[in-house]
Amino acid sequence: MDFGRSQHVLRWGGISLRISSRAAVVCAVLVVLCAIGAVAALALGSYAVSLPQLVDVLRGADDSFARTVVTEWRAPRALAAIVFGAALGMSGAVFQGLTNNPLASPDVIGFAAGSYTGALLVIIVLGGGYASVASGALLGGLATATMVYLLAYRGGITGFRLIIVGIGVAAMLGSVNTWLLLRADLEVAMSAATWGAGSLNGITWEQTGVATGFILVLFVGTCALGSSLRQMQLGDDAARALGVRLEPSRLGLVLTGVALTAAVTAAAGPIAFVALAAPQIARRIARTPGITLVPAACTGAALLLAADAVAQHALPSPLPVGVVTVVIGGGYLIWLLIHEMRRHA
C-alpha cells in the first residue's frame, strides 16, 4: 500500500472508506467527460438537435419529434454505453486484481465467451426474452469460470496458469459458438450473429432499465468486497494475516465479476477489450499502487461511450460498437504483451 499519497477517510456508521485524492479527482473528471459525451450522444446524429432544443426536451417543454428522437432512441443507448462500460471496467478490475496480472480480463480468459455460449443456447435452442437470455449468459459465464478454475487448479491458482487455461477454453468455446450458429435457422443465425458482434443499436429502455438495475446491485456488492480485493493484491499470506477470509471473498468476487460481464452480454452481446484496457488505464492515470474498482468503472464508462460515438459518427457507415472496441483493443493488447515481455526480460 502507498501511504505517501494524500488520502481521505470517509466514515458512515460502522463503515469506513479510504479514498486517494488523485483517484477522486480522476473519477470526477471522468464523470464530467461522460456527462459531456452523453449530451453529445443525445444531440448528434442524422437528426441533429440543438442545445437549447435538447434542454427543452429534457425539461419536458418540447413535444415535437425531437422528443421521440432524444428520449426514446438516443437516451437509452447513451445510458447503456455508460452503465455497460462501467460494468465491464469493474469486472476487468476484479479479475486483474485477483490474479495480479494485466492480461486477466473476462474476454481474454473465456468468461465472456462462456456467457455468449449460454446466451446463444437460449436464443437458438430455447428462445425467449431478455430475462431468459440473461439467465443463460449468467449460467454460461459461471460454468466457464468453474471449468477454468478447476482446470487451472494445482494446489492453488496462479495468474499465469489461469490465463493460459482461459485462453484455451475461450478458443474452444469460440468453435462451439460457430457450430451453434451454423446449425441454427438462417434468420435466427443472422440475428444472433449480429447481436454477437456486440452492438448497442436498437437498445430499448426495457433492456437498459433491467440491466442497469441488476448492474447497480452488483456494483454495491463488488464495492463491498473491494477492501478484501486490495488486501489480496498484497499476496495470500499478507491478506490472511490481515484477517481476510480468502476463499469466500475470492468466490464472491468471481461471482460478481462474471455476473457483471453476463449482464452486459445479455443486453448488448459480447463487447471485447473494454474490461482488459480500462483497469490498466485507470491505474496509470490515477497512479494507484494496484487495481482499484471505481476508477476502472469510470474509465470503462468513458471508453465505451467514446467507442460508441466513433461507431456511430466517425466512420463512413455505422458499425456495432464491439467492432470498434476490437480494433482499438487489439492494438492495445499487442502493446501490453510487448510491455509485459520487456518488463519480465
UniProtKB/TrEMBL annotation:
GO MF annotations, alphabetized: transmembrane transporter activity
First-listed, main subcellular location of the protein, grouped into a coarse class: membrane
InterPro entries in alphabetical order: ABC_BtuC-like, ABC_transptr_permease_BtuC
Transmembrane is among the record's keywords: yes
Gene Ontology biological process terms, A to Z: siderophore-iron import into cell
Keywords, sorted A to Z: Cell membrane, Membrane, Transmembrane, Transmembrane helix, Transport
UniProt subcellular location: Cell membrane
Pfam family, one: FecCD
Any Gene Ontology CC annotation: plasma membrane
Segments passing through the bilayer: 21-49, 78-96, 108-127, 133-153, 160-182, 188-205, 212-231, 251-278, 290-307, 319-338
Family: Belongs to the binding-protein-dependent transport system permease family. FecCD subfamily.
UniProt protein name: Iron complex transport system permease protein
